[in-house]
């Protein structure tokens, strides 16, 4: 290409000629025609031909993330493609960036320092923010190397200086935990925390560990780079610099000294208030820019016009934000000390070679650039042809055969393995056999071959010049909401309820009833040391329970807000409550068994197995199935193929994918010639399901109708006539659907959404329908796993508890109530066509709050909804919001449970400090269901007025963006509501009386008895051998963790479990001290005693007493044989006690002897 040609023309260019143009020294190149992912392909080729790094500037965060994913797909080594995100908070607003965002920023800056980044993609706002100077960042890092020596106290102090927080358990980024010779720490740039094991001051080894189980991985690390926990580190020498600059700024703004000192004190304590990141210039003198980190390289502007426009907008926002902050006397720095202006940005770009990816050709009189057009073709025609075909893959098959015949390189890109395997199987039915290797990537493509690969790619492309075609799964099956894999670090296991036991919590003791837990006490009795649970009962009665008998205690859990009455030790109240609960559980169990027996006797239509048409319909699902969603679908299809009627409950939160399970079942039913009825509790939900079913089934000749108040009587009559004639395949409606005049020609499947919200008479009608047709029930209220287990085999339950979308999508900000923050949050959402929930949970002032919001944001259409409105009025408000006629809903917490409003992607929660953690999770889960970034703003009256508990709740919520993790921890109240809904109101009362765990045990026992299994009384062995057996506080400082391990050890059913727990203790806490080793031996004895039903092992100072239960599995003749043993010294009392005369003996020897005696009975 000749650079002297008329630059107003655009020359045709291939990848090769473009690279030659760049290598020839062209300083400014403008490229047109980059459709699909062609820009990323071109950049990857450029990286292969050059050693110069690339810096790609995009207009916004979303396009930056997309381009980074696309480039990583084509380049093949994703760790070399870095993404440098923006803070995502408006300049000088009292909001703080998400910890994940800071972690990615720090990791990218360090990769640039070390020269490891081949390309960095960043939104223009990130490029305009000033940064920690390179020497300071290098100084704020710490390299740990295995087998090197580190002075321990200095190392811990250094971690604090880097902004790490000491915690009992290391689970979150930016925390560390110390136990003996073990240091756990979670650098923000690591995907998992790391366990560092010392021998003296030498690092013996370093291994990553799972934060859910706290167990180490096998993999060993030779070195670990510990980077600062956040960008603003107020510690060490930086603190003096910061305090001095902060005071000077406060004086310049005439901020009262008392307020200044209050703010400084909070910062010194590590309580960084929202917005403290804007104080960066006070902390690090001489901030640098991203261009300083980048050094020499080629800059690429993706859509330069949009980049320039966004730069101007951002500079204006920074100026406005600084002015607003100054007016409110917020001690933020001058805006130029933290941000570049648009002119500064242009000035920094000027010295570097630059490539512009342009959409429009703009005529300029003075040209300073070379222009060319890239010949790329998008796959829009292929997608349109596939849509027109209505679900079959014929157009794709024809394209693939043609490309292969012409010797093209062809790649089919899928996000997840399951979808790739599904596409492979569907193409195999069209005689296109594809090998699939999950490790294969773009570099493995060969001419004349079709390659199926895994990878994140926003769009495909066709390059006729290079005979290359790349097709994404979205272009085959339609738009899909992409989910990044949930790392194990985020997928936390549900904690044992004892891990959450705090002093002052209510507990349930199996013998004494409801009391208060007053803490774990270390006591010395008769020269024996041990840990005891201090329990308090009515009248101030105290009980010190040895930890080896911890199984007798459960945390009291009942409905939210229920305060139980304490029992009296030795009183009759507890026993009566247990008997009442047992009777109620028995009544429920009998009813469940009766329904179960009737179902086993009944016969229903057997649906066929999934065929090719079903598989193609399944593949067009616009999401990737989560494992438990797929399991629920498989279980439903399996039930439908049985002769007995299906009666399955699918449980999962809104947006977790229950509706798709129902749609698949409905499709299968209609495909086999049956009709489907979908019953919902409200008109609003009926409308929502009707729209969802129609959209999902649009490509297939199915008729979906709805009867509700939205239809006129004439329309309802006409729809019912068609349903009776078999001309309606799926009929959706409220309780109108189960009235006498509704007839179906051949009903095969009834789907019920939120059955617990229907009245008694409706439920009776449903009970009769269950005997004849397959029934699928959907519920959004969580059902506890323990209850799920006890009902196994009686109610068929499928639980979907994996959030389908990575909940990092919900950015959570904690901020004080601030007019500017609220206005900006609402306007940001409205400008992108979204909607906002504003939760204000005080009905008496909700009208005034709505007026305030309307005045603050006159551009908004504000509506009000709360639980004290009439049903019809509330319904009209919700429909208005769903249809987009209003865009801000000021409401109480009634945001309807089953509603899915994809356009609502911002939620503002007023007085968030007054909500429980579970409620906050539930509310935040209402947003973040579409492809847009979702935001949650938790408004608080001010840091100073927060209780410590409230501050902790908000911190957890802000940092645990992954809903599925913390949600399970905080969801007891919701689960209990689910239990009450499933079991009925009478059972809810029994749960409140004796606690949920105790109730579940009773129900499980009762069901087993009624099924004919003999109930075996649990045995709780008592060991009185005078041993100091416990987990020392020095070894395991956190009392809650000690409780968890005591509970695990006491619950062990065999010695293997105890050996496994011993391994876990060594892994997490180091070598076991003597009292802990003794505790493990005591627990092994306990396992033997449980197995042989021995209730007592006691040493009197001369005799070893072993107290057997009358139902011991040890036959009398074996005990007789022991009595006749030549060793002698044995007697057996009428109360089943074996007394062995062993004389005076060391207590450890007594323990070994007791074990040996019982093992003898096991062998005989």
Commentary on this structure:
The protein is globular. The protein contains 39 helices and 42 strands. The strands form 8 sheets. Strands 1-15-2-14-13-3-5-4 form an 8-stranded parallel sheet, sandwiched between helices. Helices cover 39% and strands 18% of the residues. With 1164 residues, it is α/β, with parallel strands linked by helices. It folds into 6 domains: 11-135 and 289-374, Rossmann fold (3-Layer(aba) Sandwich), CATH 3.40.50.11180; 142-226, Penicillin-binding protein 1b domain (Penicillin-binding protein 1b fold, 2-Layer Sandwich); 380-477, Rossmann fold (3-Layer(aba) Sandwich), CATH 3.40.50; 605-779, Rossmann fold (3-Layer(aba) Sandwich), CATH 3.40.50; 807-961, P-loop containing nucleotide triphosphate hydrolases (Rossmann fold, 3-Layer(aba) Sandwich); 1051-1163, Transcription-repair-coupling factor, D7 domain (Aspartate Aminotransferase, domain 1, Alpha-Beta Complex), CATH 3.90.1150.
Number of strands: 42
Overall 3D form: globular
SS field, number of helical segments: 39
**Average of the residue pLDDT scores:** 84
Biggest beta sheet attributes: 8 strands, parallel
CATH topology of the largest domain: Rossmann fold
The SS-based structural class is alpha/beta
Family: In the C-terminal section; belongs to the helicase family. RecG subfamily.
Function: Couples transcription and DNA repair by recognizing RNA polymerase (RNAP) stalled at DNA lesions. Mediates ATP-dependent release of RNAP and its truncated transcript from the DNA, and recruitment of nucleotide excision repair machinery to the damaged site.
Protein name: Transcription-repair-coupling factor
EC number: 3.6.4.-
């Amino acid at each position: 290409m000749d650079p002297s040609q008329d630059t107003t023309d655009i020359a045709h260019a291939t990848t090769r000629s473009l690279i030659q143009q760049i290598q020839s020294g062209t300083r400014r190149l403008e490229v047109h025609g980059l459709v699909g992912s062609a820009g990323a392909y071109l950049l990857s080729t450029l990286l292969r031909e050059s050693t110069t790094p690339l810096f790609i500037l995009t207009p916004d965060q979303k396009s930056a993330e997309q381009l980074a994913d696309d480039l990583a797909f084509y380049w093949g080594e994703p760790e070399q493609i870095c993404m440098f995100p923006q803070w995502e908070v408006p300049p000088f607003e009292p909001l703080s960036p998400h910890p994940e965002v800071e972690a990615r920023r720090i990791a990218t800056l360090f990769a640039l320092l070390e020269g490891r980044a081949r390309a960095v993609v960043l939104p223009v706002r990130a490029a305009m923010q000033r940064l920690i100077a390179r020497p300071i960042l290098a100084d704020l890092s710490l390299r740990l190397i295995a087998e090197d020596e580190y002075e321990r106290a200095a190392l811990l102090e250094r971690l604090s200086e880097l902004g790490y927080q000491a915690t009992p358990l290391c689970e979150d980024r930016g925390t560390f935990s110390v136990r003996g010779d073990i240091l756990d720490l979670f650098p923000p740039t690591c995907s998992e925390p790391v366990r560092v094991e010392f021998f003296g001051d030498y690092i013996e080894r370093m291994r990553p560990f799972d934060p859910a189980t706290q167990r180490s991985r096998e993999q060993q690390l030779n070195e670990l780079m510990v980077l600062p926990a956040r960008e603003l580190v107020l510690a060490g020498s930086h603190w003096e610099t910061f305090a001095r600059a902060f005071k000077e700024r406060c004086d310049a703004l005439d901020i009262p000294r008392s307020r200044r000192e209050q703010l400084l004190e909070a910062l010194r304590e590590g309580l960084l208030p929202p917005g403290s990141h804007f104080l960066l210039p006070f902390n690090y003198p001489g901030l640098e820019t991203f261009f300083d980190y980048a050094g020499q390289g080629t800059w690429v502007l993706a859509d330069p016009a949009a980049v320039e426009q966004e730069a101007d907008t951002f500079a204006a926002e920074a100026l406005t934000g600084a002015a607003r902050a100054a007016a409110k006397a917020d001690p933020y720095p001058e805006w130029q000390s933290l941000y570049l202006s648009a002119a500064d940005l242009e000035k920094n770009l000027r010295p570097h070679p630059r490539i512009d990816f342009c959409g429009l050709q703009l005529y300029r009189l003075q040209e300073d650039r070379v222009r060319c057009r890239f010949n790329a073709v998008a796959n829009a025609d292929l997608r349109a042809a596939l849509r027109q075909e209505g679900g079959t893959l014929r157009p794709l098959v024809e394209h693939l055969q043609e490309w292969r015949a012409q010797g093209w390189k062809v790649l089919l890109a899928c996000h997840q393995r399951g979808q790739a395997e599904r596409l492979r199987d569907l193409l195999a039915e069209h005689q296109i056999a594809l090998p699939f290797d999950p490790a294969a990537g773009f570099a493995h493509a060969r001419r004349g071959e079709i390659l199926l690969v895994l990878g994140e790619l926003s769009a495909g492309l066709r390059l006729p010049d290079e005979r290359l075609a790349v097709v994404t799964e979205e272009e085959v099956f339609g738009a899909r909401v992409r989910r990044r894999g949930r790392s194990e670090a985020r997928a936390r296991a549900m904690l044992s309820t004892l891990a959450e036991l705090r002093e002052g919590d209510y507990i349930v003791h199996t013998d004494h009833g409801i009391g208060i837990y007053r803490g774990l006490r270390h006591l010395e009795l008769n020269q024996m040391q041990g840990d005891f649970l201090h329990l308090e009962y009515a009248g101030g009665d105290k009980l010190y329970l040895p930890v080896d008998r911890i199984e007798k205690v459960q945390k009291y859990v009942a409905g939210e807000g229920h305060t139980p009455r304490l029992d009296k030790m030795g009183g009759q109240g507890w026993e009566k409550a247990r008997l009442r609960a047992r009777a109620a559980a028995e009544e429920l169990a009998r009813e469940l068994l009766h329904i179960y027996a009737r179902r086993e006797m009944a016969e229903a239509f057997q649906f066929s197995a999934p065929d090719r048409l079903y598989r193609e319909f399944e593949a067009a699902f616009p999401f990737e199935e989560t494992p438990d969603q797929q399991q629920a679908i498989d279980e439903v299809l399996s039930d439908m193929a049985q002769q007995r009627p299906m009666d399955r409950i699918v449980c999962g939160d809104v947006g977790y994918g229950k509706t798709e399970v129902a749609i698949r079942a409905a499709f299968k039913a209609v495909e086999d010639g049956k009709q489907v009825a979908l019953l919902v509790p409200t008109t609003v939900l009926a409308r929502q399901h009707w729209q969802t079913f129609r959209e999902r089934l649009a490509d297939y000749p199915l008729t979906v109708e709805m009867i509700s108040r939205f239809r006129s009587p004439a329309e309802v009559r006409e729809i019912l006539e068609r349903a009776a004639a078999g001309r309606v395949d799926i009929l959706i409606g409220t309780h109108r659907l189960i009235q006498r005049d509704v007839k179906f020609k051949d009903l095969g499947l009834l789907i019920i959404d939120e059955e617990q919200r229907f009245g008694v008479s409706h439920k009776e009608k449903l009970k009769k329908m269950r005997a004849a047709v397959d029934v699928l029930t959907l519920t959004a209220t969580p059902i506890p796993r323990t209850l799920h287990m006890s009902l196994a085999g009686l109610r068929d339950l499928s639980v979907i508890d994996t959030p389908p979308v990575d909940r990092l999508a919900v950015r959570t900000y904690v901020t004080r109530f601030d007019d500017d923050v609220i206005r900006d949050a609402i306007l940001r959402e409205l400008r992108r066509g979204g909607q906002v929930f504003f939760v204000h949970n005080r009905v008496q002032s909700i009208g005034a709050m709505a007026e305030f919001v309307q005045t603050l944001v006159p551009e908004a259409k504000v509506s009000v909804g709360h639980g004290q409105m009439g049903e019809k009025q509330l319904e009209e408000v919700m429909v208005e919001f769903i249809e987009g006629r209003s865009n801000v809903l000021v409401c109480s917490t009634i945001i309807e449970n089953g509603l899915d409003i994809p356009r609502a992607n911002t939620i503002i929660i007023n007085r968030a400090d007054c909500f429980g953690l579970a409620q906050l999770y539930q509310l935040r889960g209402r947003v973040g269901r579409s492809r847009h970034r979702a935001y949650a703003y938790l408004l608080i009256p001010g840091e100073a007025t927060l209780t410590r508990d409230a501050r902790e709740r908000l911190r957890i919520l802000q940092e645990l963006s992954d809903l599925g993790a913390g949600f399970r921890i905080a969801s007891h109240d919701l689960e209990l509501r689910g239990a009450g809904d499933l079991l009925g109101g009478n059972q809810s009362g029994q749960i409140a009386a004796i606690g949920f765990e105790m109730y579940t045990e009773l129900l499980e026992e009762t069901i087993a008895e009624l099924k004919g299994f003999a109930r075996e009384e649990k045995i709780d062995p008592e060991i009185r051998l005078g041993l100091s057996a416990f987990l020392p506080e020095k070894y395991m400082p956190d009392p809650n963790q000690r409780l968890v391990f005591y509970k695990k050890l006491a619950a062990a059913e065999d010695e293997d479990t105890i050996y496994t727990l011993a391994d876990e203790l060594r892994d997490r806490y180091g070598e076991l001290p003597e009292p802990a080793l003794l505790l493990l031996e005591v627990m092994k004895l306990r396992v033997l005693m449980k197995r042989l039903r021995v209730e007592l092992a006691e040493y009197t100072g001369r005799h070893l007493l072993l107290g057997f239960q009358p139902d011991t599995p040890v036959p009398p003749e074996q005990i007789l044989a022991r009595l006749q043993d030549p060793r002698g010294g044995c007697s057996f009392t009428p109360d089943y006690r074996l007394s062995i005369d062993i004389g005076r003996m060391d207590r450890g020897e007594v323990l070994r002897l007791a074990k040996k005696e019982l093992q003898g009975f096991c062998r005989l």
